[in-house]
Amino acid sequence: MNDAIQGPNSSYSNPFAVLLAGGVGGARAARALSTAFHDDEMLVIGNVGDDDRIYGVHVSADLDTIMYTLAGIEGPHGWGIAGDSFTVMDHLAGLGVPTTFRLGDRDLATCLVRTREIDSGGTLSGATETIRSALHVPTRILPASDDEVRTRIKTRRGEWLAFQEYFVERGHADDVSEIVYAGADRAEPAPGVAEAIEAAGIVVIAPSNPPLSIHPILAVPGIRRALETKDRVVAISPLFGGKALKGPADRVMASMGLPPGNAGVLAAYDGLITDLVVDVTDASDVDTLSGPVRIHATGTLLRSPEQARLFGRWFRETFR
Ligand code: GDP
Ligand code: CA
User: pTM value?
Assistant: First the structure.
């Protein structure tokens, strides 16, 4: 195996499966794979393109969604913390601060821990480790980069929006004409990320929004390079009958000029993946999508722990 993994930069030894993950789709895939692989056999690499300073704190929406889900405390819509209170938001609103971006009190505490660590000279990956360990999450998680990578959206009307402005404040209603991952070209993979990809037996791309959650990870040159050496990269489709479960994935993919349905997912990962897993409802894609990528069909709805476990077992039997 790869010696670099034992280098001073990394405490990660020979991870078997590396998962590239956004928020809700990423977190659900992480939970499913964690039923199939031991904790020391997998590593999750989370998108940081959605990160921003909001209310003065460093929000890492995708990393927190992954950690809350793996800790079993995720909110009813997949993000935030179940049963969280909103006292701070209510008081901020009373003080005249716009609070469209609703951060629960406990969620805010997570962000405060992260912000304090980063502002006192720490890194995002260090802060992620602090939070992961406090939440007793056994699965290893790294941000794609400790450097700033920020997804910016250009609307059809020609305005540039910060990611959370587009997604949360405007409820992803705008038509998108362009997406950039600002800073990605200069960003280094977080310590251990490239080494883990190089050492992995399999790389999995979660059923996350391809242009908004996965492309910002792939836009980091050191990550893209490491992936290009892999023999097996398996993507799980976020689409069901051509539509996202929720969120704008299908619309954004269409506005990026990608074909509809799973052909669009194939095109989004062109030249990178060897296998695509589609839902049983799209099983006809196994025969109709031709080309070098192997198409597999199984139940990919990973909402419940039972669905996650069944998928995990199928995954292990199919790819091990
Ligand atoms: P976000 O960062 O929270 O917006 O989430 P992601 O980018 O990780 O994922 C959004 C995508 O996840 C949507 O396109 C959904 O269709 C997809 N998704 C959510 N839950 C599931 C699931 O259980 N199975 C599959 N296959 N896709 C899912
Ligand atoms: Ca996200």
Answer: 0.95
* Annotated domain spans of the chain: 12-319
Helix (H) or strand (E) holding 162: strand 160-162
d(CA 229, CA 195): 12
Residue 49 CB–ligand 1 contact under 6 Å: no
> Ligand nearest 164 Cα, by number?
2
245 pocket-lining for ligand 1 (C-beta < 6 Å)? yes
CA 263 – CA 95 distance, rounded (Å) = 49
The CATH class that applies to domain 12-319 reads alpha beta
Helix (H, G, I), strand (E, B) or coil at 302: coil
Query: Atom of ligand 1 at shortest distance to CA of 206?
Result: 8
| pLDDT digits (tens), the chain, 320 positions | 333 333 333 444 455 899 999 999 999 999 999 999 999 999 999 999 999 999 999 999 999 999 999 999 999 999 999 999 999 999 999 999 999 999 999 999 999 999 999 999 999 999 999 999 999 999 999 999 999 999 999 999 999 999 999 999 999 999 999 999 999 999 999 999 999 999 999 999 999 999 999 999 999 999 999 999 999 999 999 999 999 999 999 999 999 999 999 999 999 999 999 999 999 999 999 999 989 999 999 999 999 999 999 999 999 999 97
